[in-house]
Amino acid sequence: MQELREREVRNLIGGEWDPADGRETEPVYDPATGEVIAETPLSTAGDLDRAVRKAREAFPGWAATPVTERARLLFRFKMLLEEHFEELRDLVTLENGKDRNDAAGEVRRGIEVVEFACGMPTLMMGESVRDVARGIDNVSYRFPLGAVAAITPFNFPCMVPLWTLPVAIGAGNTYILKPSERTPLSAQRLGELLSEAGLPEGVFNIVNGAREAVDGILEHPGIEAVSFVGSKPVAEHVYKGGTAHGKRVQALAGAKNSMIVMPDAVLDKTVENMISSAYGNAGERCLAGSVVVAVGEVADDLVAKLREQAAAMKVGPGSEEGSELTPVIRDSHRQKVRQYIDLGEEEGAEVVLDGREPPLEKGFFLGPTLLDHVTGDMRVGREEIFGPVLSVVRVDDLDGAIEFTNGSPFGNACSIFTESGAAVRRFRENVGAGMLGVNVGVAAPMAFFPFNGIKDSFCGDLHATGKDGVRFFTENKVEITRWFSGP
Ligand code: NAD
Q: Which among 169, 172, 159 is positioned nearest to 113, based on CA atoms?
């Protein structure tokens, strides 16, 4: 395979890096400086079709490769990811803007899915019952689906592709990745490392691009299943389009996550967790806590401490030691976040801390914003802002906090901060979110559990990662057997 020039973005089709010639492109920025660092080719339906053909050609050979050999390849891939850990971390920081610690956390979480998928011989096990009738046995086997596709967002350019690719290829599928056009570099490096690990040509393919490439995936008859991660409107579009074309689809969507604080919470630790949940990665996480629901008398103290700690955050590039609040992904997104803060003010929220005009001139930075006295009737209390803006809602009791939370159309994550087991139980039994945190601000499940948004945060049946992920990328055959020549 030919070497790529640094930061050259190409499609990977059937083991070859495609020449980018002639295609339209979209600029990739370093969010910390605003400089253009690469150009993403916007692939056409023809590019996608070639990738699908290559993936389908590679499928029979890969599906017939013993699962132990596929697992061994994943072990080699895991070793290469470890070897290139810092390089991948820095690539994430470069194209996404998040700080090195967050970027390292992202790469680590991605590697954990590869480790999970290394157990594919066990994960692929079917079930059996002998003697379901006299001399008759019933067995189920798991089979891969064929060529599958994944469409991923900008906010975790390394981890989100790794949520599905090791599981899908470990189970014997061939795979086409359509990374975010805003952050294509990490995915490309994953492609190079997979080739270095010895993955046969055509098993992993990359088709860069935007809307046209996505719509091509939804309509292409050669793709069996689509995994999508991104915003709610696009998730709905992908779910409807993919299922209308007979595909299996999982679409992980947007969020508006509450963090409930009970009066007995350990306040200093709670505030520390909330600051990192709300402002870490510039608030561009689907698990970011974006609304604090303060119960009873805790509110005034809590707001004062949140304000003090948020105001002390160092705004700066992710590559610089000590930066705590890093840039958002694009200037247009920064404008959108500013408009939400304006809107919150118009709706009657109190702007306790105003981050609209950050201290840095270059790059797409915002300062931390804290809005108090937000209610469920305000758009800032209900819509996903996806920036460093934290809203505070004040309620009288836990039931009020649960009622506020359940008024959200989203159901990705929700956290409670308390030392009361009874409050935690009431919270767990009644709150409408699929990932729950108890004194944990970012309720991220480990690789062996599903990434489990519900309500408008998810369209589909089987989630990504964990055993759900294995089921999503496989189908069963159930065999019933008897032998006439037996006794
Ligand atoms: P996005 O929806 O803009 O883009 C996601 C993907 O869809 C990209 O690959 C993009 O090229 C493609 N796309 C964008 N617009 C399209 C259109 N009109 N038609 C077809 N395809 C289109 O999302 P984003 O801004 O990259 O990522 C942020 C969003 O992702 C947030 O809403 C966040 O909550 C969500 N997210 C959710 C999870 C989760 O697990 N639920 C995880 C990470 C991010």
A: 159
Ligand 1 lined by 162 (C-beta under 6 Å): no
Class for the domain spanning 2-253+457-479: alpha beta
Would you state the CATH architecture of domain 257-438? 3-Layer(aba) Sandwich (3.40)
Tell me the per-residue pLDDT of 165-212, one tens digit each, with 9 for 90 and over. Answer: 999 999 999 999 999 999 999 999 999 999 999 999 999 999 999 999
Q: Domain limits of the chain? A: 2-253+457-479, 257-438
Q: Is the CB of 410 under 6 A from ligand 1?
A: no
Distance (angstroms) between ligand 1 centre and the Cα of 266 equals: 35
Query: For ligand 1, what atom is nearest to the CA of residue 252?
Result: 41
CA of 153 to the centre of ligand 1 (A): 5
Which atom number of ligand 1 is nearest to the Cα of residue 152? Answer: 9
Distance 456 CA to ligand 1 centre (A): 14
pTM confidence score:
0.98
Nearest CA to ligand 1 atom 16: 211
Q: Do domains 2-253+457-479 and 257-438 have the same CATH topology?
A: no
Handedness of CA 188, 316, 109, 235 (dihedral sign): negative
Which residues are the active-site residues? Answer: 286
Q: What is each CA distance from 9 to 25, 189, 203, 222, 316, in whole angstroms? A: 10, 10, 19, 25, 27
SS3 category, 455: strand
Measure Cα distances from 382 to 256, 469, 482 in Å. 7, 30, 59
